Amino acid sequence: MGSNVDSFGMTSDPQGNFYILTQDPRYPNDAVLLSSPPTLDTWYEQLLGNPGFDGLPRGDVAINSTNQKAYVTFSNSVIAVTDIIPPTPPTPPTPPTPSTPPTPSTTPDDLTGGVNGVLTDAVYRFYNATSRGHFFTTNTAERDNVLANPQWGYTFEGVGFEASTTPGDNLLPVFRFYNATSRGHFFTTNTAERDNVLANPQWGYTFEGIGFYAYGANANLASDVYRFYNSTSQGHFFTINPAERDTVLAHSEWGYTFEGTGFEANGIS
Predict the structure, then answer these.
(1) Residue 79: its pLDDT value, please?
(2) Residue 1 domain flag
(3) DUF5648 domain: from which residue to which, for each copy (predicted)?
(4) Residue 26 and residue 32: Cα distance in Å, rounded?
(5) CA–CA dist 48, 103 (Å, integer)
C-alpha cells in the first residue's frame, strides 16, 4: 500500500485473507477495497464508487465469504454492497526435488552413513508447497501424524539425512525451532545463535528443544548438511546432497540465500 492511502476499515475472512476499506487520492471519487492473501505480500484493489462518504475517511467493511460480498457500513447502516474477488497467494516456484545421491565412496564423509556408524537415526523430511517451508523430524510418531493429516499441506520427501537421537563423543545438540509462518524448522548447533533467536520472539520461532545430535560444521567426521534461508517464506532449507545444493544455488529466482554448512550428518544408508 502506498503512503497516500487513508485506511479506515479493516477485516479478514475465515481463510485468513485481509480486506481494508480505504480512500486513495488517486481515486478521488471512489472508495477502495484492498485485499491481500494471508502472506500479505500482494495487495489487490477494487473501486467501489462513492457510496456516501462525501470525501470523509469513515465507514467500515464486513466480508461474507459465503456469498462473496463486501458490505460497506456507516453508522451501523449498510450503504454499499459489492462482489469481492478473494485474493489468491502467488504460485510459489517449483521447489527443488531431492536428487539421487552419488555413488558411495570410501571416505569418512560419504553419503551412505559414513564409517563411524554413530549417526544411524533417520531424519524425515517434509515440504509444504503453500508456505515453502521444510519440516524435519526423527520421531516416527510425529512423522506418522503429519502423514495422517494431508490437509496440513505437507509432502513427504523421505529421509533427508541420518543423525543421532542420543548424545555421543564429539556430537553436538542440534537445537530445533518451529516457525508457524514458514511451517518449517530451523536448526542450529550454535548456542549464541540459539540464544539470539530466543531473545527475539517477534521473529516467530518456537523453541522445541534438541531435535537430534550431529557433528559440528568443521568436524570432518561426516557429510556436510548445507543450510539455506528464504526471506520470502522466512524458512530454512537443509540438504546433505551436493547436487541438490547446486540446483538451489543455480536458481536464484527461488529466493534462497546460501548460509554454508549447518552441521555434519550422514546420508541415506
Answers:
(1) 56
(2) no
(3) 123-264
(4) 10
(5) 62
